């Protein structure tokens, strides 16, 4: 697999914040799920959200990409408040590349059609250009020979690699990855993590929820530990995962270590 998965790169002076989540509050009906979360993702950074099941990682990602209405707080993308009611939500959503746990390729479309759909329909890219870009991406994720196959002919790992290629095809400002390996058989996890790592090394800006602590430690620039919808501890991976200072983080990591996941 080629290592060149680079996305367009912006200025490298200082830390340019791309995604800025401020005081994010989310209620489902009257139940609070996020209690005021602050997270920033800088250009070319990888920020990992970790925490127990139900701690709010997916909800945070979904709110950030306007896939869920925000109850309170703000989300800024390149300085623009995208939670402002006046924004064109569809246009904003098209600036994110989102990949969920269960590879959600459209089953009635070939892999190639899955990848070219949004560039053509949402971004107005001419069909031949979208097709050429899809082939380039499929070659890079090692799936060129599957371009005209339907998703049910692909392994879970291949489907997830195709889903990531589809997310990258729109040249997103931020990639949001939600537990992209958790639905996979263990032997397929590595191939998908390798692809995410290549994207990170190629300069992608990524906010990802993950249960893969070893991966977060190796690839993330910054780790945020969520517990019960609160951001309890954050910092460089070596600190949060290696020398956590908050009792709740320590307890969580002990369980992760006992389960053999760190
Ligand atoms: N659509 C929904 N309606 C009501 N409650 C929801 C909904 N989606 C999530 N929740 C609740 O919000 C809380 C946070 O869920 P969320 O899926 O964000 O957690 P998570 O950290 O991503 O969990 P996991 O690691 O299992 O994916 C949970 O208590 C969950 O039950």
Automatic annotation (TrEMBL):
<dbReference type="InterPro" id="IPR003439">
    <property type="entry name" value="ABC_transporter-like_ATP-bd"/>
</dbReference>
<keyword id="KW-0813">Transport</keyword>
<feature type="domain" description="ABC transporter">
    <location>
        <begin position="19"/>
        <end position="253"/>
    </location>
</feature>
<keyword id="KW-0547">Nucleotide-binding</keyword>
<dbReference type="InterPro" id="IPR027417">
    <property type="entry name" value="P-loop_NTPase"/>
</dbReference>
<keyword id="KW-0067">ATP-binding</keyword>
<dbReference type="InterPro" id="IPR050086">
    <property type="entry name" value="MetN_ABC_transporter-like"/>
</dbReference>
<protein>
    <submittedName>
        <fullName>Amino acid ABC transporter ATP-binding protein</fullName>
    </submittedName>
</protein>
<comment type="similarity">
    <text>Belongs to the ABC transporter superfamily.</text>
</comment>
<keyword id="KW-0029">Amino-acid transport</keyword>
<dbReference type="Pfam" id="PF00005">
    <property type="entry name" value="ABC_tran"/>
</dbReference>
<dbReference type="InterPro" id="IPR003593">
    <property type="entry name" value="AAA+_ATPase"/>
</dbReference>
<dbReference type="GO" id="GO:0005524">
    <property type="term" value="F:ATP binding"/>
</dbReference>
<keyword id="KW-0472">Membrane</keyword>
<dbReference type="InterPro" id="IPR030679">
    <property type="entry name" value="ABC_ATPase_HisP-typ"/>
</dbReference>
<keyword id="KW-1003">Cell membrane</keyword>
<dbReference type="InterPro" id="IPR017871">
    <property type="entry name" value="ABC_transporter-like_CS"/>
</dbReference>
């Amino acid at each position: 697999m080629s290592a060149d998965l680079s996305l367009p790169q912006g200025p490298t002076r200082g830390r340019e914040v791309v995604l800025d989540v401020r005081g994010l509050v989310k209620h489902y009906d009257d139940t609070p799920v996020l209690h005021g979360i602050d997270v920033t993702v800088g250009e070319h950074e990888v920020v990992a959200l970790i925490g127990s099941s139900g701690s709010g990682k997916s909800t945070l990602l979904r709110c950030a990409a306007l896939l869920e209405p925000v109850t309170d707080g703000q989300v800024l993308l390149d300085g623009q408040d995208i939670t402002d009611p006046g924004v064109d939500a569809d246009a904003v959503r098209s600036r994110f590349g989102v990949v969920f746990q269960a590879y959600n390729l459209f089953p009635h479309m070939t892999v190639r059609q899955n990848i070219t759909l949004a560039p053509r329909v949402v971004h107005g890219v001419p069909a031949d250009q979208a097709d050429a870009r899809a082939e380039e991406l499929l070659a890079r994720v090692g799936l060129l020979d599957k371009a005209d196959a339907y998703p049910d002919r692909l392994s879970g790992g291949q489907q997830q690699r195709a889903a990531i290629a589809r997310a990258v095809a729109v040249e997103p400002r931020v990639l949001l990855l939600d537990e992209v390996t958790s639905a996979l058989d263990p032997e397929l996890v590595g191939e998908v993590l390798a692809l995410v790592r290549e994207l990170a090394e190629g300069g992608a800006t990524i906010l990802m929820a993950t249960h893969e602590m070893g991966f977060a430690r190796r690839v993330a620039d910054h780790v945020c530990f969520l517990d019960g919808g609160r951001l309890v501890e954050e910092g460089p991976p070596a600190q949060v995962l290696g020398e956590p200072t908050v009792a709740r983080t320590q307890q969580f990591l002990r369980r992760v270590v006992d389960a053999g996941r760190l």
